[in-house]
Each structure stands twice: as C-alpha cells, then as structure tokens.
Specification:
By secondary structure, this protein is of the alpha+beta class. The protein has twelve helices and 15 strands. Helix 9 runs antiparallel to helix 10.
Length: 472
Amino acid sequence: MLDDTPGTPDWWLLRLGRRMRDRRKELDRWWDYYRGHHPLPSLPKNAAAAFLEFQRKSRTNFCRPVADAPVHRLQVLGVTDAQGKPDDDALRWWQSNKLDSRQKLLYRTVMAQAQAYVIVGPHPTRTEPDGETPSPLITAEHPRQVIVEHDPATGERAAALKAWWDDIERIGRATVYLPDGLQRYVTPRRSGAVLPWGRESWELDGEFEEHDLGAVPVVPFECRPDLMEDPEPEFGCVLDIQDRVNLGVLNRMTAARYSAFRQGYVTGHKFRKRVDPATGLEVVEQPFVPSPSALWASEGENVKFGQLDATDLSGFLKEHESDVRDMLVLSHTPAYYFASDLVNISADTVNALDVNHLAKVGEHQATFGESWEDVFALAAAQAGVDRDYSQSEVRWADPRRLNPSVIADAATKKASVGYPLAILAEDMGESPQRVRRITSEAAGAALLASTVLPAAPTGQQPTTANPERTGL
C-alpha cells in the first residue's frame, strides 16, 4: 500500500491523479464542442424520437474555427540570446524533436482543452556532440494524461504527474515528477478508460530516480490564464451562443420541412372514420393526398379548399447571423473567417477586423514564449549547457498578414534612416538563422566588391573597363 504522507511521491501520485480524473469530464465536454459533437438541441419530449435525426443535422460547429484561428498566427521562428544572436543549441534541440510541426499540435490542444504540457527528459538513444551526454527529449503532452501543481507561495512548479494506459503491456503507468527526481508506478487495474486512484491500486516501479535539472521537467502551456481562475478553451466564452446557434438552426430546419411549403386545407367535408384493428382506436381516413396528378373532389355541401401561406424563413436567417456575429465579437475572431456579406473587402478593412484578434494572439505569444523559455532552460540543463535562458527571447512570426510589397516598402524607408540590415531582416519576418545568413552574405558581397573595385582617388569617379577593349 502506498505511503500517503504529504510531500512524498506516493502522496503526489494520488493527489494529482485524482485531480486529473476530476477534470476529465470537463476536458471531454470541451473536446466534444471542439469536434462539433455538441449537445443536441432540446425539443418537447413527445417529439424527441421523431426529431432525433433532425437534431443531429442541426449542429453547426463554430467552436473549432474559433479555436483554430489563433493557431494559424502562432509560429516560432527561433530563439535568440540577450544580444539578439541566434541560439544554435536551441535550434538543434528544436529540429531534432520535430517541433516545427509539433508546436502546432501543442497550440491546437491548448486552444481546445485550455492547457497542454511539454515534458523534457533524456533521449534514450540520441546524445549531444560530446558523445556521452543524452540529448534532451522534448515531447508535447495532452491534459488527459498530464497535470501540474504549483507552489501557491512562489508560483513555481511543485510536482507533476503523467499517467496512461500501456496497451502493449496491458498495465497502467504513472510517473511523478519532482524538482529533484522522479518516481514510476504501475497498476494492473482500470475502470473503463479511467485509471484507479486508491492507495491500494498502485505499486512502485523501480527506485526513485534523481536528476539535476533544477525544476520539475513538465512545463504547462495555458490558454490566457487569469489570476485565481482555471484556464478555459478559446471558445469557452461562447459555448452558450453555440448552443443557441444549434437551436436556431433546428428551428429553421423544422420550419423549412413542415411549413415552408404551402399547405392545403379543406372545410365542410365529412370524413369517413374506421376502427384500427391493431389498436382498437377510431381513426379518420384521409382521402386528400398531395400529388401532381391528384384531383380533389368532395360531395359535401359548402366544401372549401384552400392553401395556407408558407412560413417566412428570413427571420431565422437574421437570427442566425446575429448569433454568429455575437460569437465573433466575444471571441475576438475576425469576421472574414465566416464571410457572409463580406465581398471584395479592402486591406484596410481586413486590418481593422484583425485588431482585437491580433491583440489576443499577442497575449498567447507572451504566455507561450515564457513557457518555451522554461522548456529551453530544462533542455540546456539536460544537455549540460550552462546558459541562462531567462534573458533569451523566443522569436515569433509576425501574426499580421501583410502584403510583401508593403513590407519591402517599410524596410526601404527604415534603411534610408540608418536601420541595420539585421534589424530590417528581423522586421521582415526572417528567422534568426536566416538573419545571420543574410548579414553574413551581405558582408561578404561588400568585401568582394571592395577588392574588385579599388577606391577611386579623391575627387575622381571610379572608371569602368571598356567591354570592347577587354573583349567582354
């Protein structure tokens, strides 16, 4: 049986495991909204069975594009030190762990599930250039399997847990991460998709493994966290509107199916009645069946046939547009992601629609940038590189979608007032490695030009060789 003394690895295993279990229901709910599996719009109980298929078709998923919109603008270009020079070690770790593509998976999970994690540890096979030190293994993790707890006094990470079901060995595995080491556990039990979190459920899997990383090697990435509040997914503020949109679509579909076409009626006709042999109930026979070749006639006196007016669906459409507009405004998502009446809009209009969205993306960049700095600090400790990454800067691609000619024109004007080439290349969105290459090749070209064309005497313009005399 595990030791439940506070602060021990066993205690952290049970505490964090139960917290992870308790939040699973909310994570599943957010994931269902992100995937478009929203709760079916409600109808009267007696009509629920008949409208079940209608209910499924009425769901229109706006949560996913709301969550994906910031992901499209988030792209790490590289890491620079305090002097703005590119960090070659960070680039090597970034590329070897395939983070160019996996960073998008991380951001998308954060937007959909409110948080995601990155774990740093020793790579099982890859080593650093010295051939002995294990290279850092950097993996993106889902909040269904990982959770972190912070020290309330300092805000530093106090402990972390990763727990998952091993389908190959058919056992549950868990690892508790502490600032000075980690402890592994196993369990043969599982209830459905949920691991057990009782004291008698888990067993130690090996001895406590010490490390010298100096911190818990699990870094959380959170979706715009607030003080004293748990983070919410990007669409957390518009869930009610999403449900309202689905209900409005269901109402419109119902009206379109049952009352959008002109319905016929008859008065003064005497209908025949018969007894249903199966139920014993008296039912009315319906002789008037709509058909292109049907002719309706009645022998009754004062019989009148007529048609009801079709239902006007324009009100439903206006309601739908209003709900979508509210969703865009509250989530700070540009309206052109749901282009309806936006036709041939100008670049200035696009920039105006982007203002709030870019401000939100800037918040994500600031929060994620701090998390990436923690990741690189852990990677450096794992690789044995003595470097302070608190002064480093994560370089992000410009989230604006500017015309290349506008960018080039701005660079030309900055160059005319003395901006260095390296700064101009950064402003044009080049990665730190490309900036270094651009400045290096520009310096080489300038040196080559100075050797080919010697400086002209004072007051004399340099001469150019005559092609006819040189045979060129």
